[in-house]
Amino acid sequence: MRGTRFRKNLVTALLLAPAALWLIVFLVLPFIAIAIFSVGERAPEGGYQAALTFAQYANLPARANAFWNTMVLAPVGALGCLLVAYPVAYYLALRAPQRWRLILLALIVIPFWTSLLMRTYAWLYILGGRGIPALLAYVGIEDLRLINTPGAVLLGIVYGYLPLMILPIYVSLERLDRRLLEASADLGATPLSTFIGVTLRLSLPGVMTGFSLVMILLLGEYLIPTLLGGGKVFFIGNALVDLFLQSRNWPFGSAIAITLVLVSVVVLILANRISTRLSGARRVDLI
Amino acid sequence: MRAFVVAVFAFLYLPIALVVLFSFNAGHHASEFTGFSTQWYGKALSNPFLVEALKNSLIIATTSALLAAFCGTAAALGLQRVGARTRALFEALLGAAIVVPGVVIGISTLVALVQLFAVVNPFLASLWPADQPPRLSLGYGSIIAAHGLFSMALVTMIVGTRLSSLDRNLVEASSDLYATPLTTFRAIVLPQIMPAVIAGFLLAFTFSFDDFIVAFFVAGAQTTLPIYVFASIRRGVTPEINAVATIVLAASVLLVLLAQWQLGRRKPSP
């Protein structure tokens, strides 16, 4: 008996070992490394020099611009996604003809799984000098600058993350018990109050899931502000690339990275709290 | 509302359509369509730097997705056999691998590896008898490992979901009929989870192939396709880049459809 139990444990250990090793070597240890780096000093020639100081954290305001942009544009971008996504999810879940539903849904998901880099640079055409500004010049609006503005970054964000917002909202609306809508109408509620009191309320968990997913991903965004913000709209991601690959100030970069992870954790915890409040929260598979 | 939905679909597909359209542009200018031509596809595929980057991306995506599919499936199977506490800890780490922003995964891997190399390389050099000791450095290995981390977590979750909906009766029946655990696994479990494994592999491949930010940090001297495309865009978009983008977009659509189809399969094929 003891032999088979030993063998069973051995098999379990062997099954888990590669993944565990991977997680430890490429997730846990690196994270400990940047935590150590974040209390160190920049070596004179760049890189890291051992020390125990919180100077890097005290220096965070030096990159306040990146934090400010991220902390403003990430929630605003997520909100923009939400405003565009909700009607689409609503239509797909409750209004679209049954046989079209899955096809339309697939059309929403496909862009999300194709390269964000390639989809984002396409906006350079539309917003660039020969795109919309050229069209507007015909009607007399001259010298309009669209590219390299916070507005362009916001547009890129809504464009890039829209599918991720539509999906969870769609799922929560699709699972909605239609009888509740009928009951509400039977009890004399107007369509608007049915929508607010029943539909919107019951879809809030999906809204929360979508919002927090988009927020978390936006906190670490790099490509969209770089391509559409033209180096003028700095995000935390841009600051990290700059500090690690250009100025080689690894300790300061590590302090920013640690702060970024802490902010993400806070956002996740908040989102979780709110979702639990909105009882009946369901997790959504993205694929 | 219908008009709004149509507008959103137009919004989603207009930029993609423009990239595809301009990839067939006869002229040199990226923003003026002067006629139909496929010359840029030829130019793209005869550009040695681009082909090299494409080859690197294919090698990296295939290797990291294979490793992820293998280790992720093993982990999903292993997690079925452990206690709630170990399982919760493991799943928290897997969740972290997915949630931690790519920039942070990239820099922490870079920092840790550079540190590791600083210790290991002198040690290797002291052991090596000849003049040219092997040196560990950033490159294929580091990109594959960093991409695989996220993918492996994804595969574990997808396969885990599939395993939890597996018909236990079949497994019990199989062992009641004196099949060895290995036979039961091969005949009952594996065919049922295979679609999830394949879907996981394809998604892992797509992720790795598309990833820019993680690779940007840990690539060292290597260039992947997204890194090449990113660098080119900063010098100005060319029809050649549009041709590459069109190929990549078409390929990823194909892979996603394949993955969806695999996930949608209820029963293993006979």
Overview of the molecule:
The complex is a heterodimer of chains A (287) and B (270). Chain A has 287 residues and is mainly alpha-helical. Chain A has helices at residues 2-37, 55-58, 64-95, 98-112, 116-127, 132-138, 150-174, 178-186, 191-219, 223-229, 236-246, 250-277, and strands spanning 41-42, 48-49. Chain A has a two-stranded antiparallel sheet. In chain A, helix 7 crosses helix 9. The model of chain A is unreliable at 281-287 (pLDDT under 50). Chain B has 270 residues and is mainly alpha-helical. Chain B is 78% helix and 0% strand. Chain B has helices spanning 2-23, 39-45, 48-79, 84-99, 102-127, 140-164, 168-176, 181-210, 213-218, 225-235, 239-264. Chain B starts with a helix and ends in a 6-residue tail after the last helix. The interface between A and B is large, with 79 and 81 residues.
Please name the defining characteristics of this protein:
heterodimer; A: 287 residues; mainly alpha; two-stranded antiparallel ribbon; 12 helices; globular; disordered C terminus; B: 270 residues; 78% helix
Question: Could you write a compact summary of the structure shown?
Answer:
By secondary structure, chain A is mainly alpha-helical. Chain A has twelve helices and two strands, in the order αββααααααααααα.
Write the layout of secondary structure elements.
The complex is a heterodimer of chains A (287) and B (270).
Chain A: H1 2-37, E1 41-42, E2 48-49, H2 55-58, H3 64-95, H4 98-112, H5 116-127, H6 132-138, H7 150-174, H8 178-186, H9 191-219, H10 223-229, H11 236-246, H12 250-277
Antiparallel strand pairs in A: 1-2
Chain B: H1 2-23, H2 39-45, H3 48-79, H4 84-99, H5 102-127, H6 140-164, H7 168-176, H8 181-210, H9 213-218, H10 225-235, H11 239-264
